Amino acid sequence: MKRVIACIDSSPCINAIAEAAAWIASQTQRELVLLQILDYYPASYHLGEISGVIGFESNAMLLKELAELEQKQSELAVDYSNNLLKHISELIQEKYGITASKIQEKGDFLEQSFHILQEDDIAVIGRVGDHSADRHKPIGTNVENFIRGAKSTVLTVGEKFTPPTRFIFAYEYSPTCQKMMKRIAQSDLLRQLQCHLLYVGDQPEVLNEPEQYLRDAGLDVVLEYRYGDVAENILEYQREHSIQLIVLGAFSHSKIHQFFLGSIATTIFRNASVPLLVAK
User: What is the pTM of this model?
Assistant: First the structure.
């Protein structure tokens, strides 16, 4: 069964993550999975920095105290995780009538999540993580690395989520966008939404084929032609028409390629006020 994976942590986005994942599950009949990775650092993490400075007796005493502290820290982290997952599960059950399954692991967030995710999953993650250093950034460090490395489709959300009825797909004539067009036509989620097909450039005829292909697949398609900067036009069009979702392809070899390699990505993530769906 296909799954929607909600990456649960204690970030400001947690309620929006739960809402978005539950909405996707209700729209697509996917299994809803709450995923939490406990990636805290143990108390002994910095031991190597001080073990060569203190005497043997003190070192032995310190090792014992650190082992006890680490055990307590581990127990508290698991208790916190259990309570958080229970709280989110109850909210989803009450509002959507969906019983979510849970996956709880310890270790590095990226390593563990990449191991768990499957290609046909939709992973939902907050745009900023639960580390204080990330909360003032447009996109957290782990989030950016997650988008780059995940083999599944990824939906990023901010602190609020509104179920979308329309999405923007910025098209160019490239193998990546043609592949994306097919993914959209087959998507159990995007097929239900109105597609705003946006082209930025001086050859608007490139939209003829994708428009017909998506219409034949049963999508409601709206065409838009623009000139100038790609990111600015996407954001401007989204604001003008109150589009609730932006769909991006992860890789390409022209302007769209810069989404996760340069200025376009920075501009989109810093200024977009709506969720972004990154399809692989």
Answer: 0.83
**In contact, 199 and 227? CB cutoff 8 Å:** no
What tokens appear for 57 in the block?
């007796």
Radius of gyration of the chain (CA): 22
Q: Is 121 within 8 Å of 152 (Cβ atoms)? A: yes
Nearest Cα to Cα of residue 41 among 11, 74, 10, 72 = 74
Question: What's the pLDDT tens digit per position in 66-97?
Answer: 777 777 777 787 888 889 999 999 999 999 99
SS3 state of residue 261: coil
Q: What single letter denotes the amino acid at residue 103? A: I
Give the whole-angstrom CA distance, residue 233 versus residue 159. 24
d(C-alpha 97, C-alpha 103), whole Å: 20
Q: Locate tokens 């996407």: which residue?
A: 234
CB within 8 A of 235, min separation 6: which ones?
267, 268, 271, 272
Q: Are 214 and 244 in contact (CB under 8 A)?
A: no
Whole-angstrom distance, CA of residue 167 vs CA of residue 183: 14
SS (H, E, C) 197-212: EEEECCCHHHHHHHHH
Q: What angle do CA 247, 166, 154 make, to 5 degrees?
A: 30
Helix/strand/coil for 97: coil
Q: Which residue has the higher pLDDT, 55 or 1?
A: 1
Under DSSP, the state recorded for 162 is: -
Q: Around 84, how many Cα atoms within 13 Å sit in the side-chain half-sphere?
A: 22
